[in-house]
């Protein structure tokens, strides 16, 4: 018996599309918060403290550290914000410069003042990709469970006489 042919494991595979669906929902909520921040947030000046971009073949990841004073605060704070690579490339070499950002008191979202619309649209596109992945995984898991229910374990067919398997009978 193959590990994935176990009926219990085949049923547990439903957790994968549910995980992708949860990611899609979380990204949609973040996108709505970013949109609200971009449209109704307060513009403040932030200093680009540092930029950390890791470009490797398997993953490209990066974040920018910003120092700014929130609208209702008196002291400045430093915060590391993960951004897509397109935005990080634009900030390269700008350490120490002041850039506009939009923030809200009730939200932890930070939207770059230079590209407010692009940031939340990109978050919604990531949510759409996660939803498409969830639907695709659900289709695959449903097909696998249906196959196991109707045909049984495909590895069980190979457990018979090796001569029968080779001859195709």
What are its keywords?
single chain; 169 residues; alpha+beta; OB fold (Dihydrolipoamide Acetyltransferase, E2P); 2 domains; five-stranded antiparallel beta sheet; 50% helix; elongated
Description of the structure:
Helix 2 (15-40) runs antiparallel to helix 4 (116-151). The radius of gyration is 24 Å and the shape is elongated. The model has no long low-confidence stretch (mean pLDDT 84). It has 169 residues and is α+β, with helices and mostly antiparallel strands. Helix content is 50%, strand content 22%. The chain has two domains: 1-41 and 115-169; 42-103, OB fold (Dihydrolipoamide Acetyltransferase, E2P). A hairpin with a 7-residue loop joins strand 4 and strand 5.
Summarize the structure in short.
The protein is of the alpha+beta class and 169 residues long. It folds into 2 domains: 1-41 and 115-169; 42-103, OB fold (Dihydrolipoamide Acetyltransferase, E2P), CATH 2.40.50.
